[in-house]
């Protein structure tokens, strides 16, 4: 299933933008650099969404998780 409209709107937003109402929080992971990655799963379309900073000195952003995200 392709990402729903709300997930499309979520992707690319800054981290202070709240998760949309169908996003269910998942585990907090760590990327290769040890940065926290907040994970969410959409109960409407099943899309994984990630909230993470692309680098230590950059602000958090929302992005699509890969299809292989296992959480
Ligand atoms: Zn969705």
From TrEMBL:
<feature type="compositionally biased region" description="Basic and acidic residues">
    <location>
        <begin position="1"/>
        <end position="11"/>
    </location>
</feature>
<protein>
    <submittedName>
        <fullName>Uncharacterized protein</fullName>
    </submittedName>
</protein>
<feature type="region of interest" description="Disordered">
    <location>
        <begin position="1"/>
        <end position="28"/>
    </location>
</feature>
<feature type="compositionally biased region" description="Basic and acidic residues">
    <location>
        <begin position="19"/>
        <end position="28"/>
    </location>
</feature>
């Amino acid at each position: 299933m392709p990402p729903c409209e709300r997930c499309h709107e979520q992707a690319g937003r800054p981290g202070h933008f709240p998760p949309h109402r169908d996003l269910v929080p998942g585990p907090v992971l760590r990327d290769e650099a040890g940065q926290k990655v907040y994970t969410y799963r959409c109960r409407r379309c099943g899309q994984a969404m990630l909230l993470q900073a692309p680098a230590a000195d950059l602000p958090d952003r929302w992005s699509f998780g890969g299809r292989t995200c296992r959480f």
